Amino acid sequence: MKAILNNYKETSWDYRTANTKTLTHCFHSYPAMMIPQVAGRLIETYGNNNKLLFDPYCGTGTSLVEANLRGIKAIGTDLNPLARLIAKTKTTPIEKKILDSSLNDFNDKFFQYRFGINKIDSIVLPTFKNIDYWFTKDVQEKLALLKEFIKNIEDFPVRQFYKVAFSETVRDSSLTKNSEFKLFRMKSKQRENFYPDVFGIMESKLSRNRKGLYSLMSINEFIADSKIYSFNTVVEIPNKIIENESVDIVVTSPPYGDSRTTVAYGQYSRLANQWMGYEEASQLDNELMGGKKINPNSQFNSNTLNEKIDSIASKDGKRV
């Protein structure tokens, strides 16, 4: 029996071949995303008859979507404004008639720009730090035109829907290595041959996201009841937002440590956040978990944690 147990390998949680981009999970790439099948399975296993799910590091809202799919209300919080935008948009239905009308207007307008029928007139470009380092002038003009179009969309959920697609378009048309989450510039040879179809990229993102949203809205059990906040759960969980004893289940994928050695959530989001007007975008990693070093002599309300920190300090003063 012992030999059998030693050789046993649990494979039912292996979702490497699963489609993780169904429904609105297709909306936007993001570092270290939670796998929808994992979140869904956890909710189904431990959340039977639950009324409220909480995700203290909700990122782009995977667990919130999976909760709403099962008729469970959800609350999430994240310090990254881009993540909050994506999470809210992924869980917000839009009337098809309104969205399709807007998309038709977009396609008609930018078809003419895309194929040179209309020329881009003078347009005000943003002036954030290093914009010329990450974007060619041609790309800046096209992104600015997209941004102006989005700003003039009156319907708020539709405007947010466009912003999500715009965010990915910003990254895909930048001079970054898109295979990296951290900001690395393409090599000179790559830059010389890089002519992104900015309007085509945006159109493709919008089309993909429309399909995902309508698929979500077609599911009978889906309820659009997710609320997303920006409070820091390391500091406090406000009672006015989440009452004591109100949460039935917590499903989350916590941050993977600090940006220097692990996943750079802020760096990944920086360019999109800058284009959308978030002034502190370059400082975001400092605000996230592990973003600031603290005195290793600090004492926490946990004997176990304090003992582990002391153990690390005895071996590596920098790492602690």
How far is the N terminus from the C terminus? 42 Å
Helical/strand content category: mainly alpha
| Strand portion | under 5%
Tally of strands: 4
Helix count, per DSSP? 13
Taking pLDDT < 50 over at least 5 consecutive residues as the criterion, the unreliable ranges are: none
Sequence of strands across the biggest β-sheet: 3-2-1-4
Structural shape: globular
Rg result: 22 Å
Q: Write down the oligomeric state.
A: single chain
For the biggest sheet, the summary is: 4 strands, parallel
Instruction: State the share of residues found in helices, binned by percent.
Output: 40-55%
Mean pLDDT: 91
**What are the secondary-structure elements, in order, as H or E?**
HHEHEHHHHHHHEEHHH
Helix-strand layout with pairing:
Blueprint: H1 2-7, H2 36-46, E1 52-55, H3 62-69, E2 73-77, H4 81-90, H5 96-114, H6 131-134, H7 137-151, H8 156-172, H9 188-192, H10 198-217, E3 226-229, E4 249-250, H11 265-275, H12 284-287, H13 303-315
Parallel strand pairs: 1-2, 1-4, 2-3
Helix pairs in contact: 2-3, 4-8, 5-10, 7-8, 8-10, 8-11
Describe this structure in words.
A 4-stranded parallel β-sheet has the order 3-2-1-4, with helices on one face. The chain contains 13 helices and 4 strands. By secondary structure, it is mainly alpha-helical. The longest helix is centred in the middle third of the chain and has 20 residues. The chain is 45% helix and 5% strand. The mean pLDDT is 91.
